[in-house]
């Protein structure tokens, strides 16, 4: 059963989730927001944010997309981000932190919100950057419990361009107004930033790779990348298509790492066409 929810200052809600017994973090509070809840019989789209994202940082893009799709939506802030339970400052993220989010945290949130098995079979995941990688990992872990997935600027292995840009982000955070800007969206901005930045810049993370797991994905999959992305190259989504043959690719001109901000019309058109086609063929 879902725990009682409390209203947060940005009109989101919170839910308490229980993680596996061997997880030392105990219960976590997750910030979330429903979109178009009046569409009770419509499929659900779940949005997974980037490495420094949150419910608020999506702004109105998930709502705009759900309106075009005629679907319900769920946006949430992962632990350590937004108004969700912050990461303790002395706790480093493990190299497999994205796998933990896919296998444990997201299923626990869906359980808490009483999204049942039938709803999950009709559900779409839409993830950006680290959220795109978590989308792929969830699709691989639960191949029979998902209508389809959209991975936007995902990572499936570590590239030099990614590490260089993340190192530049650290300099910007410490020497510019980036910290102040992010602080508007996270209860503990240092926890959010350094949790993400430290693990990506660690020596151990250079060997992180989820390519083999792509073989387990069975659902329809759209992979999107901008040609001007400074956090990853087209090799990321080309690799996905090589390992999951049902993948369709959308390569966007004049678009950097955030297609929902850089090229929203082109991105929305690609997603609406893709999801509409597959929902229709599945009778959803």
TrEMBL record:
The keyword Hydrolase applies. The keyword Hydrolase applies. Keywords: Hydrolase. GO terms for cellular component: membrane. One of its GO terms (molecular function) is hydrolase activity. Residues 46-270 form the AB hydrolase-1 domain. InterPro entries: AB_hydrolase_1, AB_hydrolase_fold, AB_hydrolase_sf. This is Alpha/beta hydrolase fold protein. It comes from Paraburkholderia phymatum (strain DSM 17167 / CIP 108236 / LMG 21445 / STM815) (Burkholderia phymatum).
């Amino acid at each position: 059963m879902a725990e009682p929810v409390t209203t947060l200052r940005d009109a989101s809600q919170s839910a308490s989730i229980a993680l596996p017994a061997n997880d030392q973090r105990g219960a976590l509070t997750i910030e979330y927001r429903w979109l178009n809840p009046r569409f009770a019989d419509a499929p659900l789209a779940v949005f997974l944010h980037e490495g420094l994202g949150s419910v608020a940082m999506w702004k109105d893009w998930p709502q705009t997309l759900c309106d075009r799709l005629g679907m319900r939506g769920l946006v949430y802030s992962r632990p350590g981000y937004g108004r969700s339970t912050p990461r303790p400052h002395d706790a480093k993220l493990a190299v497999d932190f994205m796998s933990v989010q896919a296998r444990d945290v997201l299923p626990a949130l869906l359980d808490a919100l009483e999204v049942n098995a039938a709803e999950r079979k009709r559900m779409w995941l839409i993830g950006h950057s680290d959220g795109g990688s978590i989308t792929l990992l969830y699709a691989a872990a639960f191949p029979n419990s998902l209508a389809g997935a959209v991975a936007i600027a995902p990572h499936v292995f570590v590239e030099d361009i990614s590490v260089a840009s993340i190192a530049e982000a650290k300099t910007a955070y410490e020497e510019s107004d980036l910290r102040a800007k992010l602080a508007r969206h996270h209860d503990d901005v240092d926890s959010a930033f350094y949790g993400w930045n430290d693990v990506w810049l660690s020596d151990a993370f250079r060997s992180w790779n989820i390519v083999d797991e792509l073989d387990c994905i069975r659902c329809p999959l759209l992979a999107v990348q901008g040609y001007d992305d400074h956090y990853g190259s087209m090799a990321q989504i080309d690799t996905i298509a090589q390992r999951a043959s049902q993948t369709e690719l959308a390569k966007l001109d004049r678009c950097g790492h955030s297609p929902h901000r850089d090229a929203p019309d082109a991105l929305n058109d690609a997603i609406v066409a893709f999801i509409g086609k597959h929902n229709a063929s599945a009778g959803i």
